[in-house]
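Shall we go through a protein fold together, starting from nothing but its sequence? Label the sequence line and the structure token line clearly, so we can match residues to local backbone shapes. Would you write everything just below, so we can both look at the same thing?
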Amino acid sequence: MDDIRDFPAIDVHAHYGPYVRDDSSDLQNRLASGDAETVVARARRARTEWTVVSPLLGLLPRGRADAAEGNREAARIIPATDGLLQWVIIDPTRPETYEQAAEMLATPRCVGIKLHPEEHCYPITEHGDALFAFAAEHRAVVLVHSGDENSLPADFLSYAERYPEIRLLLAHLGNGGGAAGDPSTQVRAIQASTQGNVYVDTSSARSIMPQLVEWAVGEIGADRILYGTDTPLYSAEMQRARIDHAELTDDQKKLILRENAVALLDLPGDNHS
């Protein structure tokens, strides 16, 4: 394959559904929304074969989201939508979501667990033992929002060390808790890990900072970084272009765009070299 822009990607961090924030305008909420078919259409324009989603219904609005209903919706929509895979959401304040996760992790379209301490309003340090013991029992990949008050990468690290059976994917490379935050927090957590089971995805606006992805590759290697877009909140095509045009080798870009996800999520590894 001569042009990296034609290389089929796997987006490990996306959503679908209505974006609802009480502090956002109606226009902001509308522009950041997108149903499952819209997300898939945008993914195809970004040369993405698989998009791993969690439903916004299960995450928003902050403090009032119904994670259980979001999981039920995903169980209907994702198997019926070509190109989508699922993160099952666990909200530890909703015990039903543990039961849902146990069932959904056994289905072919579900690749792991999604945790969002910020939107569900709990400190990970209060619920982490139960959450990660469950994940370890199921030998699950766990995608976690990271970088804000309830979800500091350093706080997640202790669970990754204690439960080496899990694989921890820190969302949002560069998110250090707002525009003035430290963009190195996810990378530093990976460097401090001793189990080799911590990774980071490139989703969110901070990942388009000049040279951030290149800096992260230099610090932790391309094999610890996975492509994510956070679509429909952000443009899938813009996030894809950030990797396509990075000052990296094509082999490094292929790891980030697809090959790391195939290995981490145990997906079919077709030859796309």
Observations:
- The longest helix spans residues 250-265.
- The mean pLDDT is 96.
